[in-house]
Amino acid sequence: MDSKNLIFFTLVILHGSIGVICQMLHEPDELMPEFYAPLENWTVSQGRDVYFTCTVNNLGKYKVAWIKSDSKAILAIHTNLIAHNHRLTVTHNGHNTWKLNVIDVQKNDTGSYMCQINTIPMILQTGYLDVRIPPNIVDEDDIEGPGSAAMEGGTIRLRCRSTGKPEPKVHWKRKDNRLIVIRSDGAKEESATVKGDTLELSNVHRTDMGKYLCIAKNNVPPSVSKEFNVQIHFHPMIKVTNQLVAAPIGSNVLIQCYVETSPKAMHIWAKMDGADLMPNSKYKMSESPINEYSLQMNLTITNLELKDFGGYLCMAKNALGKAEGSIRLQELHLPRAPTTAEPPESEPEDDDESPSESEEANLVPHNDVTAGGGSGNGRSPDGSLRQTDQQREHPPPSTRNPSLTGHNGNGNRHKDNRQRHGGGKGSGVRHTAAGWTLLTLAAAVAAATYRWTASPDWGPSR
What we know:
By secondary structure, the chain is an alpha+beta fold. Helix content is 18%, strand content 37%. It has helices at 2-26, 357-363, 381-393, 397-400, 417-421, 427-454; strands spanning 34-35, 42-45, 50-57, 64-68, 73-77, 80-81, 88-92, 97-102, 111-117, 123-137, 149-151, 156-159, 162-165, 169-174, 180-184, 187-191, 194-195, 198-201, 210-217, 224-239, 244-247, 253-262, 266-271, 283-289, 294-301, 310-318, 321-331. It starts with a helix and ends in an 8-residue tail after the last helix. It comes from Cinara cedri.
């Protein structure tokens, strides 16, 4: 029985060999298929489109097949798609080129792809697809340990898990670009960034409160980040910068309190001797946030009255306690503006009481009048002596009252009559009397001079 089987298989082998030999003898000039160019190797980001190009010369009666190497799955034969994958297509240009198109590549598309021809022995070539995956931050279990909230002086541990190809690198930073403070064994280190998927904050302070960013990168765009909100809880605190404020009645006044609190507190304004204040047209209340845990409480009191003066309280209450600050508002007495008395109206002077400038010129004699109108060299000594004696008996007005003369030291007449004689009330009567006296004296001097000049005894000696 074994001999018969052996003989049968021997005959089969011989028959096949004879068939091949006969085929070679009948088709001695047949060309075998060959690849014109190698397949591409691709490294692309997830979501991109790629294609593999297989160019075969002398394909003849043979067929081209596409196979995924790692799974040994047949994807397509010639132009017929075998795999049930809507992201795969096969195209042929009608000559010698076949293409396998992969649309929107995913992580599981990574691997080797073969273009194979069913010759004996079969021939093939391989291309590789490397799919790079951008980083992704996993939402689950992203916070470990004490969590993102703690009492002041406690510890907070944040963890950020990420995936991607290649494996992402993670670092931390504050969203407002403030420095991250790492405290350990009494030492303090400040840094703009901290590397690693875990961030631990020990002995936390209220200044550590805020938003932190976990950033993952692997050189495959885009990089991703996730925000963590760190909360530090502490007892409320209030600071009052101006504890004494003064304002006048009828004005509007603003009083303020600086508050630090976490968690959020309820803020109240009240009078020391009364109930809590409610916002209305009299009391205008507002809050000005400063950062995550501090703000400014503002109270504007409008149209101040006497009853508004006194003490005011600003209060902050949360689950951890209460804090308050006090401000005293007092009245500000403004000085009265001085009143200016109106000057009395000046009474017009009577023109008859003060002589005019022309009349004064007539009253005041010129002091360069000579007896004969000449140089005086032809006078006798007796005539000169008599003139001197008469001048002593009747002195000219300029020697009696120099202030009434009409000339200054240069022989120029004074122009301002009121400045020399005074502009006070009642001076017009005195000026009139003095003017008549001067007129009488001037007439006497003029008459004496005329007699001296006309007398023959005063003529020049012959």
